[in-house]
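Example record

The entry below shows one chain as it appears in the dataset: sequence first, then structure tokens.
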Amino acid sequence: MPATKTARWVSITAVSPREAGYVTGLSEKTINQAIDRQEIATLPARREGESERLLGFPELVYLSLRDTVGPLLSAEGKRRLMQQLDVLRASPQPGGVSMGPLELKIGNDLDTLMGKLEELERARAFVVVDPEIRSGEPVVRGTRISVSMLADLARQGASREELLEDYPALTEESLDCALLFARIYPRRGRPRRLPFRDGEVIRPGK
């Protein structure tokens, strides 16, 4: 794994518990509980006075190891593991983590984590939230196509091919990123019901 790639994420990563859930595969509730128990620390909020919870790269690595390594460690062992992982803030590519007689090889975990972080970053890049566009509803960048509408259509049976045909402004990549964005940041409330005719969803242009 190129050190420059990892170093980039070490320097910029600050994700919410919801985003950390996607990256690590844990539930948002589990991650918040780990914060509440002070098992992991949070980063300062982006703006003074805000109470958002943000996690850095070492915390994400710790969470990604939690289910496999955590059961083998005492509370003190988990604290020491987090201390060992804290070197990731300065050292972009450790080969492993030493816990006394236990040597953890974390290269594969880092590769998986980096892949998920890249997917998250790509989804963010393809979606815009602008108060001047659809009253701030997330849309695909460069369009007025609602992300939640695409997710609703896909949930109700529309295929990727149909969505790309119905919305020519979309590319395969922007559609995939929009659907991933909708998974990570689901709209609050019940999904909007779309019109049907003869048991099929009626999409624009049909």
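Notes for this example: Confidence is low (pLDDT under 50) at residues 191-206. Residues 3-114 form a domain with the Multidrug-efflux Transporter Regulator; Chain: A; Domain 2 fold (CATH 1.10.1660).
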